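Our consortium's second objective concerns turning raw sequence data into structural hypotheses that experimental partners can test. To show how far this objective has progressed, the report includes one record in full. It was chosen at random from the queue rather than selected for favorable results. The single chain below, 324 residues long, was entered without modification.
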Amino acid sequence: MATTEMKLHSLPEDAATTAVASGRPRAPKPAATPSRTARRIRENLVAYAFLGAALVLFAVFSWYPIVRGWLLGFQEVTFAQPAKWVGLDNFRRLFEDPLFATAWQNTAWFTLLALVFGFAAPLATAIVLNEFRSARGYLRMSVYLPVMLPPIVTMLLWRWFYDPGAGLFNNALEVLHLPPQQWLESENLAMLSLVLVSTWANMGTTTLIYLAALGGIPGQLYEAAELDGASIRQRLWHVTLPQMRFILMITLLLQVLGTMQVFIEPYVLTGGGPNDATVTVLLLLFRYAFVYSDFGLASAMSILLFVVLGLFSLVYLRLTRSRG
């Protein structure tokens, strides 16, 4: 008893009180531990290092070229002499160039044709493939195969198809006793020929998106439509398309954004001809920069294209946000 009282007297007053209440001496206070933030930083130090490196690379190879490009749009740049600030003079020169309006008209015409063919073809293909119960994987791989080909290979393949002499298409017309066509040399057929190439090369991705959307439509809707006596066309119009309305709108906007940036098809197949009938915005921008060495004019045109595509991107973001 005396020993216990001596131990209690040797403790501080609050510790003694706790010891009396619990019947045992209180353990000593543990040493101070690092804060939660410091511990979290130490545990994720490697992750932060990778994140920092990614941000640096993104800033150097993405943001810096964007900012530099905007500055070049207001400068006279030849890289032989120091850049000279010219304000809006590059934009004035753009609007005075007759090819500027031609390029925008050709791009708009290409976009319209691509929507007529490139928007309907993947949807029709997806609806047909969705009806197959066997060989689904093989059919989907066949549709997606052109997407996996390098673009330059696709362009060279279609150049042989369009060859006015020994090309595949003219040989097929000869078998049908039809006159051969100048596919890439005719002002009336050149743009349509480019649209067919672009549609064939890029429809695989959109088709798979539509197939995924079709798989998400409840089967009870089709069963109810069949019980009501709806035909195939009525089921397509009143069930399939309304259920895919949001996906169709998103792919439509993405296709507009993609087709307005068409470059490789006219660059490889026609070079902008015949008579500038296939000169697009990006092809003209390429000429300004690497043919005429006028990087200020090319940057000014890229700014205008950026603004136009930005407006479509805002519509896309607004739609996706409202859907969410």
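The partners drew two points from this record. Residues 295-323 form the longest helix (29 residues). The longest strand covers residues 75-76. Both points have been shared with the crystallography group to help prioritize constructs.
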